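Let's do one together. I've listed all components of the complex below, 1220 residues spread over three lines.
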Amino acid sequence: MSFPILDVVVLLPLGAALAIALLPRQAPMALPKWLGLGSGVVELGFVLWTVVAFKTGNNHAGFQFTSREPWFGPLGISWYLGVDGISLFLVAVTALLFPIAMATRPSPEGALPRSYLGWMLVLESACMASFLSLDAFLFFIAFEVTLVPGYFVILGGLGERRAYAATKFFLYTFAGSAFLFVGILATYLLVAARLPAGSPASFDIITLARGAMHLPLADQELLLVAFGVAFAVKMPLVPFHTWMPDAYTQAPTGGSMVLSGILFKLGAYGILRWGIFLFPRAAVDLAPLALTLGAVGVVWGSVVAAMQRDLKRLVAYGTVAGVGFIVVGLFGFTVQGITGGVVEMVNHGLSIGGLFLLVGMVWERRRTHELDQLGGLQTVAPVLGWVFMAVLLSAVGLPGLNGFIGELLVLLGTFITHRWWAVVATSGALLGAIYLLWAYQRVFHGPAKAVNAGIRDMTWGERAAIAPLLAGIVFIGVYPQPLLSRIQPAVDHLVAHIEYADPSLKIPSSGQGHGTFAVPANQVVDVPAGTTSSAAAGRGGRP
Amino acid sequence: MTVPGPWYLVLAACLFGIGGAGVLVRRNILVMYMCIELMLNGVNLTFVTFSRMLDDLGGQASVFFVLVVAAAEVVVGLGIIVAIYRRRTGATADDVSSLKG
Amino acid sequence: MTIFAGTAGPGCTISNLVTSEAKVSGLCTAKGSLSIPVEYRSIAPVLILGVAALVLLVLSATLPKRRYPGLWAGLTALAGIATTVDGIVQWANLDNPANTALTVGGQVLYDHFSAFFAILFGCATTLGAAISDSYLSREALDGPEPYVLMLACSAGAVLMAEAAGLITLFLGLEVLSISLYTMTAYHRRRAASGEAGLKYFILGSFSSAVFIYGAALVYGATGSTQYFEIFQFLTGTVVVHDGVLLAGMALLVAGLGFKVAAVPFHFWAPDVYQGAPTPFVGYMAAVAKAAGFAGLLRALMLALPTQVSSWRPAIWVLAVASVLVGSVMALVQADLKRLLAYSSISQAGYVLIGLQAGTQAGWSAASFYLFTYLFMVVGTFAVVGLTQGRGEVRNDLGSIRGLGQRNPWLAGGMLVLLLAQAGVPLTSGFLGKWLVISAVIGKGQYELALIGMVGAAIAAFAYLRVALLMYVPAAPTPARPGQPRGEGGGEPAVAPTGPGAPSGLAEVAGDLEALATAGLGATATAVALRAPSTARLRVPRATAAAIAVCVAFTVFAGVSTPVLSLAHSIGLTWSL
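Okay, and this is what the predicted structure of the assembly comes out as:
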């Protein structure tokens, strides 16, 4: 029995939140702050240790650090945590962004309110549980619980319509989750009905994936749609996105950071882990729909973002485009595409999280997000300008920074199987570059307006806050190997699973093989040896 | 001449129906209350008739329970009505309308 | 011979009991012999509650005439605890299946189901007494009478859950209802209370008459009022002309539908909830609903399982109508008690959803739902009883405004209870919905599952609005910068209202107000936004303890298994 590190990762922020809630009223004002930040940093330490200790290589495609306790025994529900290459870096980004977000003050006056710190910690705990959960019930609980702290974090902002935004956020996602609720239960019961006599029904992902694969295709498609609606609302994919600009703009800076940087990843991660993985055949059938929504999202998000006059809304719509791009990658069903999608999720957390942080800094100085009111900040606040530029270029996808790797993989991977969608998405990426650079130009270039002349440059505290994000951006851009080597086996395995479920799916050679595709010994789904080797050959993997 | 059982059942159903319609239509609370008694008596007649037709004592025993319950309802119901009308003059349901609905 | 022929399958111990002539010789069929077998441990909860009611009456007549603060409530709570403990003892005793019995002349069924509901009604009595005490002394109504009524009501409720026949069920129903009529009308100086009592009385008596007429028709069609004899008759006979039976079943369902406030038999509920003394509403919402459903579950699942294809569509319609009408109507209420009344109507819809599945999963899901709902609704009404002020002057939505400042702990507890009713995970409300929905999905009724969840999302807005209002500052005027905050109330330990930018406070309050009253009429809005006092809200000790228990239980039952496995094994009783 090794150290239950994932349980600690999930429960530590919750414990810190409880401690903050129970602190006596007379406690010094700084105590909750240091408690919150301290627990965030300790959490980050645990996560980094997990990343380092994570075993790479094709024999380790399965879940690691698993921890399992029966929970609601009679219902087949267990507390089941585990991490694989797909969730590992999402967990890492979560642990990285939360302390930074907690350090940002929701209001310029006064100390950090305890309530804000408390809800942020609860939110961190729920996000961690969502990413790490291997039990559908536990996942649903965590996914749904994010709403409550999310609601209160948005409510803690300064926007004039924050109550409206928070309520809209809650109700939209709650209604979306209704479908997930029914979908999970239906999957469980349908799978349980087909289990051989004597084997216990369970909500764990392995049992569900084994069984769901063999359900009638029509059932699978309906279930995937039910799952998909919930995740599409959370992401948010284009027709379901209307809650998002309100929520992101009304939330405090830290709230926007974690909402866009992490919470929406829950949707993208959910569609990969609980949608594509459980219903691979249905996913292949419905891929054109998902790809279309994704590609439309890229173009539409970019165009609308370009038209915004409010810097924060602009970044918020940029998120819509980013989500579309990730979906295009995931539904390409190639190793490159899915790897790219996962890398993009990580990148997006770093760059959009960073952008919201910087937008918050601009707001603290000028108390406005209006692009017309800003301008010429480069001359008075050069450091802020350069940092903004760096993060922005990462979002644009400049080679040498992290965005490039992800976008390249997505486009390569999807181009092979779904050419035209990839072409549309590429045009979206170009649009993205245009609107972001244009926004940069309007905010930082030109002569400094009189009102902007007196603003101060970044403080050391602010530099310290953005530094970890910049480090991540540069590191992934320059040396992505540690990232890819950990993500790769899990994705290989997922693609093998999809191909096994749907042998008709021919994934052509990409020429971008990342090593041999030996089937992992501890893999989740039984893939007969013959199938796997042919699949590997089909993908043209070479050493 | 014997009257066939179903006729009693029809009579009982009529009593029950008249009582039910009375509760829903009439506005005087005492009359409404009497209508409920009428419904219960329709029930009693039904029980007795079935008891006779089935040659089973259970139905007749049930009537006693219904009677006792009806008596208990009278006590409580009249108590509530009196408590209300000590504050008021008339006795129609339309006066009792400070609650919506 | 099996009880769930065609539905759940396996036979049960009770059916074996039915065949043993000695035990089944009930009141109606006993011929000649006067020795009726009585298993006293089976009716112990009824006896405890009934005797406690008598003790209270005798004490009040013999003690010197003066006020005894806390005495009556204390004795009632004690009786409630004794009932709960007895229920647990019964449960342990029943783990040996041989102890399951049909007793007291075949009128009382002694099984896990009745023990479960004895525990439920014992808890309800304890909590009801705990939250009533401070209310009654605040309103200068204290005395033993309401507690006597509460005990009698609980005794009737237990009897309904134990009944093995329609006549016993009717007796329990009437003991329960008559006590509740009086409790509703108990506030002598409030006109609304008397009116609500009268309305409840007329409509309740009407529904009782409907119910007993249904029992008479079922008796005529099957030859008995005893569940197992009806069942035996219906399994052994093919009813060709089943008009009388169908009419009887419809009237039974309608009569009990009134008691549980299922749409379209719900129209009394908002008025009665609005008028009745608030703590009694909490008690009533929990007990009347649970007892009505206990009767309905027994009657439909024990006596009429063979007719499931006849009654399932009817229950389906009631369930869907209750969920949707309850949720939507809750959105447009400006009165907090009416809002909660509609919410309880929609909660009844979920129990009906479980019931109409007609399976053991549905049976235990409904039981679990009722048990956990008890704690949510009693706690919620306890909080409402505190915020409304002396004389129930404020029941509108605005009365809860600023609770986050006036008493952060109370607001936190209320938040948990509201989220639980909305069905947010990690609360018992979520688990209840999970069980209910999984029961209907198990029957392949996906459309019903979706309707149920959409209804939950609609209702969530109503609860969220209340939750939001708790955190709107009680005084909408913007605070001056630098003003020391929270003199009386202080900041909530975990609450969204940070110090905030004073300049933005006014607009934000405006936004919150606009949202909190969206959909209400102009007059209602004006009333709803009248700010209550900002003074710290004091919570009497007994009420605080009761609310704490409710909140703790709501979380406990949502994250752990004991209550769940209790409810789960109720279903198993019938599949032995």
